[in-house]
Specification:
- 89% of the residues lie in helices and 0% in strands.
- With 205 residues, the chain is an all-alpha fold.
- It has one domain: Phosphate transport system protein phou homolog 2, domain 2 (Methane Monooxygenase Hydroxylase, Chain G, domain 1, Up-down Bundle), CATH 1.20.58.220.
- Helix 1 packs antiparallel against helix 4 and helix 3 runs antiparallel to helix 6.
- It starts with a helix and ends with a helix.
Length: 205
């Protein structure tokens, strides 16, 4: 069930990427469609999260195991929540024409990297019940990917964001776009956190 939940979480990240791609292309109709897809997929992940937690606490499981599983599910849920939040802000509040093409392109590359780290996180979780060493190795890859994303954000996204800030006089829009990028950053951070939990569980087996 945890593996299925992470699959659904990844589908939310993919829907965010589609939203950002449509945003980069300036296709407002497709932006709304992909945002709604992110919203629906996040709701599906939420429903499964609640089911897992309810079923887990209805069974005899060691308290420490319960805690680790709960942390795993709730942290993975944060990935989906940040993906949905970013997609929602793009879909409902930001006109693509109001953001520079350079910044939109950087956001597109950023979101593509997020799909990559989400899928690596899924691999780490999937391997946890099959191959402990492989799960640890996959978790290490998640951590390395997060570091590369941090570097990309610092070198590619922030400079274009600051350049756009200087040109726009809309403070509210500036703050909103910064929040979108923060959501995307938090998404990557939560993937790393899930990888850390997977590594901890694998080492404890």
């Amino acid at each position: 069930m945890c593996e299925t939940h992470m699959q659904k979480v990844c589908s939310v990240v993919i829907a965010l990427n589609e939203t950002v791609e449509n945003f980069c292309e300036g296709n407002t109709r497709k932006i709304m469609s992909s945002y709604k897809s992110a919203f629906e997929k996040e709701r599906e992940a939420d429903e499964l999260k609640r089911k897992i937690l309810a079923e887990m606490y209805g069974k005899i499981i060691h308290p420490l195991d319960q805690e680790h599983i709960a942390r795993l599910i709730l942290t993975a849920d944060d990935i989906a929540s940040n993906a949905k939040a970013a997609a929602m802000k793009i879909g409902l509040f930001v006109n693509p024409k109001s953001v520079s093409a350079e910044l939109r392109e950087s956001m597109k590359k950023f979101s593509e990297n997020l799909v990559g780290i989400a899928m690596r996180t899924y691999d780490a979780l999937r391997l946890l019940g099959k191959d402990r060493k492989a799960a640890i190795k996959a978790a290490d890859e998640v951590e390395k990917t997060e570091e590369l994303i941090d570097e990309f954000r610092a070198k590619e996204v922030y400079p274009k964001l600051l350049e756009w800030f200087k040109k726009t006089c809309n403070i509210g829009l500036s703050l909103l776009v910064k929040e979108i990028i923060d959501n995307m950053e938090n998404l990557a951070d939560r993937c790393e956190d899930v990888g850390d939990i997977v590594r901890f569980i694998a080492l404890s087996l």
